[in-house]
Structure formats: C-alpha cells, structure tokens
Amino acid sequence: MNILSFIHNEVRKVWRSTVFWVILAAFAILPAMVGFFNSSGDNWETYFSGLLGSIASLLVVGFSFTSAWVFGREYTDNTIKDLLVKPISKWYSVLSKFIVITMWNVLLAIFSFLVLVGAGILLGVSDSSLPFILGIFLTFMTISLLITVVSTTSALLANVTKGYLAPIGLTFVIVIVSNVVMQLGIGPYFPWTIPVLLLTGTDIGFISISILALRE
What we know:
Order of helices and strands: HHHHHHHHHH
Oligomer: single chain
Shape: globular
C-alpha cells in the first residue's frame, strides 16, 4: 500500500464518523456567537482585532481534540491490533494520520474564518478592502498551522494512554493554564498561547520563537 491509500483510508474514517460533523457544527456555532455577541467595531480591522484571539483559543481546543481522536480511536475501537498485526508500513500509518489531522484542521480553520466573515457581513461591518481581508486570512491560516503543531501533544498522549479521554482532559487543563499564564504576563513562554499572541499582533521575542521551533 502506498501513502495515498493510507490517507484515503484515514479520510474515510473521519468523514464517516459522527465526531466530524459534531466538530464542524461547533465550529459553525461558536465563531458565529463570538462574532455576533463580542463584536466591538464597525470596520473590519477593529472587528478582527477584537475577535481573532477568541477564535485562536477555539482552534487550540478543537485541534487538540482532532489530534487526540484520530490516534485515540484506534485504541477505543480496538483497531490498533489490526494495524500492528497486518504487514503494512507503520510509518505510513502514522504519517497518514498526521496528514489527515492537518487537512481536517485546515478545513476547520477556513470554515471558522468564513463563519466569522459572514457574521461580520450580517452585522454590517464595512470600510475595508478585499486585499485587507485576504491578508488577515493568510495570517490566520499560518497561525492555524502553528496551532496544529503545538496541538500534536494530544496525539502523543493518546498513544501513551491508549485512548482519547486523557488528551481531552489535557486540553481543558491547557485552556485553564493558558488563561492563568496570560493573566500573569508569561504567555509568550507557553507554547499554546504563543500562536494566539501572534494572531493578535503581540510582539514576541526570540525565546518564544525558539519554543515554537523546539515544538516543531
């Protein structure tokens, strides 16, 4: 089997699962709620500056869950035995999972951004240009990829604990700790808050960049 066959198989697992549609619904509802109820500007620059931090935090939670589920379900569904017994490339199996996780996360990021833009249009946000919105979108997608990288810890924990409950618990711990470190002013030194700070335009130093590089 080549790598494309592995990727196709993983895509089918995700597509046919209820989890995929539940997460997609969450990424439709939550960004819309953030856009409608937390908007603080009548132009796109102010609109995005006030909301992107919240959306980035949502991505941290969502991406951690997708990583945990793709790896953890093999244990909860007892399909890990088949993967270990069959004469297939274990490297291809792992690589295909990370590729599908990245594809899934990119889809969620694009979808949430479109929902956010749609909410802004319905709210009557104006006074900006298409190039500006595209620039925000490219920055948003770049940060989404960084969040995907730091969220792979959930995949590691899913393999160690042989399930996805522990990684989900870790995700909630990360959310709590992220809020604490942000309040203490040490967000630039915590891997899961660095992408959020970058997205909100906060200047970070060499140490923060080094932390991200080590995570990659």
